[in-house]
Design a protein that fits this description.
The protein has 244 residues and is mostly helical. It has helices at residues 2-26, 37-58, 61-89, 95-115, 120-159, 165-171, 186-193, 198-206, 222-231. Helix 2 (37-58) packs across helix 3 (61-89).
Length: 244
């Protein structure tokens, strides 16, 4: 049981990084793997600090690991519980009440673990197994998402017909497409931010450019917006599939 012993040390860290991996999978169209590295490092550092503090107080490794895990679960789950209560009841719960319930639950759990030391090993094993399963599921989902992205990009690349610059200039007119990624429409900038964008738009119009006055993007990701635009179809339909 070397692996079992190692797992008893690292499972609080697995519990800490799982929400980061799960959130990235939920937003995989907009967040790449490299972007979550900083969040993972921060969660590992926070977990180490909390564990050292709890170990300094209780001087029991397994008990400290459980208390650290419970603290992380409560902190990371707080926002999700708050949102679900608001959705279920139609109005938000007071933070003082919800936070109080969380604190009482945490203190009561710690008290029960201290009073029932025989339950520590079982709870520790349960948390460790759960953490491993959740992290492995998240990593598998990330791998599937990355494979799907690679296949979609490779398929789109094979569909493109390569044409030399000389051939294109001989048969087609010059077309300039300006994509102002992240730049809002004039009416939105005016109504929401009080910014007058008319001088910029008029300048483009005077130069002969066409500016869509009521443009809307179907995607919040530049990569997907450009792919959809150049393929002239929704991204999920480019390859004849329902999903990318």
């Amino acid at each position: 049981p070397i692996m079992k012993k190692i797992l008893s040390y690292i499972y609080p860290f697995l519990i800490a990084i799982y929400p980061v991996l799960a959130l990235r999978n939920f937003n995989n169209a907009y967040v790449d793997l490299a972007s979550v590295l900083r969040s993972l490092i921060i969660m590992v550092i926070i977990t180490a600090i909390v564990w050292l503090v709890t170990y300094g107080i209780f001087r029991k490794r397994r008990l400290s690991g459980i208390i650290t895990s419970l603290a992380l679960i409560i902190i990371l789950a707080y926002g999700h519980v708050y949102i679900q209560i608001e959705k279920g009841f139609g109005e938000p719960i007071r933070h003082t009440l919800l936070a109080g319930l969380f604190v009482i639950s945490f203190v009561l759990s710690c008290w029960l673990l201290i009073k029932q030391p025989t339950a520590v090993n079982g709870v520790s094993q349960f948390l460790a197994n759960t953490a491993v399963i959740l992290v492995l599921m998240s990593l598998a989902q990330s791998a599937v998402n990355e494979v799907n992205k690679f296949r979609a990009a490779n398929s789109l690349s094979e569909q493109n017909q390569v044409q030399t610059q000389d051939e294109a200039s001989a048969s087609l007119p010059d077309i300039y497409l300006i994509v102002l990624d992240g730049h809002g429409r004039s009416d939105v900038l005016r109504d929401e931010f009080g910014f007058d964008n008319s001088q910029f738009i008029n300048g483009l119009t005077d130069m002969g450019f066409y500016v869509a006055s009521c443009s809307q993007s179907n995607y919040a990701s530049t990569n997907y917006s450009l792919t959809s635009m150049f393929q002239m179809d929704y991204i999920q339909l480019v390859n004849g599939r329902d999903k990318l």
